[in-house]
Write a structure and sequence with these properties.
Elements lengths: L1 H16 L3 E5 L1 H6 L4 H8 L4 E5 L2 E7 L5 H5 L11 H6 L4 E2 L9 E6 L5 E7 L5 E4 L1 H30 L1
Parallel strand pairs: 2-4
Antiparallel strand pairs: 1-7, 2-3, 3-5, 5-6
C-alpha cells in the first residue's frame, strides 16, 4: 500500500511539473522572421558589437545574464516588438575586427541594402509556446482519478482478504 501511495504521489508531482504547452513558433521561425536591419533594431535595439567585411555587416548581441539585452528581460517574439530598454541603454555599438566569444549570443549578417543574409545564435532559445491550461487541468484530474480508483480497488481487495 505504501509503495502504491509513493508511486502515485511521484506520478502526480511529475505530471504537474510537465504542464501542457503547445509550440506556436520554433526558434528558427522566430529568427527567420527578422528580414531587415530595421526589424532587428526594433526587437533587439542596437548591437553590442559590429564588424564589416566583404560588403557584409555583422551585428552581435550579447545575451549573457549580465548584458543589457538579457537584463531587459524582453521576450523575443516572431516579427519583434518595440524594445525601449535597448534604445536608452545601448547607444554605443563597438566596431571590432573579431567578436567577443560570449556563451550566449545572437548574431545577424546584413547586405548593403540592410537585408538579413543570415543569423546565428548560441545559448538562447526564442521558441514561442502557448500554455494549455485546460489540457493541464484535465491531465491532473485524470491522474487523480486513476489514483483514487487504485485506492478503491486496494481497499475492496483488502476487505475480502481480511474476512
Amino acid at each position: 500500500m505504501k509503495k502504491l501511495l509513493t508511486r502515485s504521489v511521484i506520478l502526480i508531482g511529475l505530471l504537474s511539473l510537465c504542464s501542457c504547452t503547445k509550440i506556436v513558433y520554433t526558434h528558427k521561425q522566430v529568427m527567420q522572421s527578422y528580414r531587415t536591419k530595421e526589424a532587428v533594431v526594433k526587437q533587439f535595439g542596437l548591437p553590442d558589437e559590429k564588424r564589416e567585411a566583404n560588403s557584409v555587416t555583422e551585428w552581435l548581441y550579447n545575451c549573457d545574464s549580465a548584458s543589457t539585452f538579457a537584463y531587459s528581460k524582453k521576450q523575443v517574439r516572431i516579427n519583434g516588438t518595440y524594445n525601449p530598454v535597448s534604445d536608452s541603454s545601448n547607444t554605443n555599438s563597438v566596431t571590432v575586427k573579431q567578436f567577443t566569444p560570449y556563451s550566449k549570443y545572437v548574431k545577424f549578417a546584413f547586405d548593403q541594402q540592410g537585408n538579413v543574409l543570415d543569423y546565428d545564435s548560441k545559448g538562447v532559445n526564442f521558441t514561442e509556446k502557448k500554455k494549455n491550461t485546460v489540457g493541464t487541468v484535465l491531465l491532473l484530474a485524470g491522474s487523480m482519478a486513476v489514483v483514487v480508483a487504485e485506492f478503491y480497488m486496494i481497499s475492496i481487495s483488502a476487505a475480502f482478504v481480511n474476512d
